[in-house]
């Protein structure tokens, strides 16, 4: 497992896979292309909350972004990797991913409608 600016390299790879410029990618998170460039070059590091947002956006784990693991599978895949008698099919993984995504979106809307944040729970 490589360690030299792994976060920056993985952010760049994931951004390139989505075919985003640094400017387009930064706009998603309210960042400038200069900030994204610094993260990718390793001259600056995003704070932990931003790393989590990047991981959620790209559907990878923070451990993958930080170079602690080389497997970029989502949380669902990791949670069920060794947990059942038979591995999940791609269709089952996709279904669980979509269900989790819908749950998170519903939860955000519910919290927003009540003027709450995650920290209030």
3D structure, described in words:
The protein is globular, with a radius of gyration of 16 Å. The chain is built from seven helices and no strands. The relative contact order is 0.10. By secondary structure, the chain is mostly helical. Helix 1 (6-17) packs across helix 3 (33-41) and helix 2 (22-28) crosses helix 3. The mean pLDDT is 84. The longest helix has 24 residues, at 90-113.
Structural class: mainly alpha
Main beta sheet: none
What is the tally of beta strands?
0
Give the DSSP E fraction (strand runs of 2 or more residues). under 5%
Specify the number of helices.
7
Helix residue percentage? 55-70%
What key attributes describe this structure?
single chain; 121 residues; mainly alpha
Q: In terms of topology, how is this protein built?
A:
Blueprint: H1 6-17, H2 22-28, H3 33-41, H4 48-58, H5 62-66, H6 75-80, H7 90-113
Helix pairs in contact: 1-3, 2-3
Q: Short description, anyone?
A:
The protein has 121 residues and is mainly alpha-helical. 61% of the residues lie in helices and 0% in strands.
């Amino acid at each position: 497992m490589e360690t030299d600016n792994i976060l920056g390299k993985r952010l760049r790879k994931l951004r390139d896979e989505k075919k985003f410029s640094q400017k387009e990618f930064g706009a998603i998170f309210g960042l400038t292309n200069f900030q994204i460039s610094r993260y990718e070059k390793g001259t600056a590091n995003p704070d932990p909350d931003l790393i989590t947002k990047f991981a959620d956006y790209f559907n990878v784990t923070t451990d993958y972004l930080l170079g602690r693991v080389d497997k970029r599978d989502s949380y669902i895949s990791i949670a069920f990797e060794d947990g059942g008698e038979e591995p999940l099919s791609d269709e089952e993984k996709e279904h669980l991913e979509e269900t989790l995504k819908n749950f998170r979106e519903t939860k955000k809307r519910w919290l927003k409608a009540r003027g709450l944040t995650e920290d209030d729970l």
